[in-house]
Amino acid sequence: MTDLDELRAELDGFAQPEKKKGHSAREERIIAGFEEIQRFVDEHGRTPQHGEDKDIFERLHAIRLDRIRALEECRTLVTPLDHQGLLDGDYAIEAESVETMDDDALLAELAGAAGAPELTELRHVRSSAEKRAAEEVAHRERCEDFETFKALFDQVESELKSGLRTTRPFGKNATIELNQWFILDGQTAYVADEGEEFDSPQGKKDARLRVIFSNGTENNLLRLSLVRALYKDEASRRITEPNAGPLFSETWEEDDIESGTIYVLRSLSEHPYVAEHRELIHKIGVTGGKVETRIANAAHDATYLLADVEVVATYKLAGINRRKLEALFHRIFAPAQLELTIQDRFGHPVKPREWFLVPLHVIDEVVQRIRDGSITSVVYDPATARLSI
């Protein structure tokens, strides 16, 4: 018997170890889904959120996490994996309509957590609507008439640098309208045209847009496709409309002056073009001191066209934010900026930027509109020499 026991002991070393009980296919899907949520948290530093401003996959992750939290079976299964504390605390399931989601994608993503019948695994597979939207946004062509829009792009860039425009996350105001500006995939995008509205298959209003991009390309795509693309691009931004902000306020900033003067100058230069259009060419500025002191050295300063100037109008104001006020004037009169290059005292070419071909009475109207607060949406039309809204 002893020999047999020894033989059995030796043979036990070659025996296959007992197989541990594995997970069912459904449990594997639940675990895989939870691991996807964990990867999302690692990548974004937060749990997936609900809301139409979120990427469709983030919304699906959020619904799946709700289901896992709500079902005791699921919680028990994935609790040993929860190193991020996703299951800690008492969570109220956040309701969200799923009417706009692709049915197949939603069912596939929720199959594990919701206990649906066996379905083919569709993780990492985009819905057909998402695929169409991505393809549509990616399909851009050369904009043949880009020169028509280039001045607009240059103006918007200048207004962003001056602070007259700012950028905000797209989700803060999830609408797209004609003549609005966005940043998508690192390119400035302008909605140049919009077709007739129609009802999309999801029951939402949609329209075909012509979108011009700052790299000289364009795209004719659906508005809802552009919305999806802006949501998907985490770096996308909405460019705000020109807004001078509070020119007159009770709280003082670094660029504010307690009292100051808007001054309008006319050049006495003998340059042929300036002499011919002298009654129209004006320089507009703001100073907190004396205007006379500001222009004392005009004849030796290229900013003043290397010539003496005369003061043709002044306006006393209080509580002025100088930077915003000057940016406002430049925005309104940008279409009429004087295109003139002169040589400075050292023979170097200089292109002064603060002179405009604008009648004095129009400048006076702008100042009055600044005072009464109606200036925000006003633009200047050089062809008619008038302001318009």
UniProtKB/TrEMBL annotation:
Domain Bacteriophage T5 Orf172 DNA-binding: 276-370
One Pfam family named in its UniProt record: MUG113
Origin: domain of life: Bacteria
Protein name (record): Bacteriophage T5 Orf172 DNA-binding domain-containing protein
Lineage, opening ranks: Bacteria, Pseudomonadati, Pseudomonadota, Gammaproteobacteria, Oceanospirillales
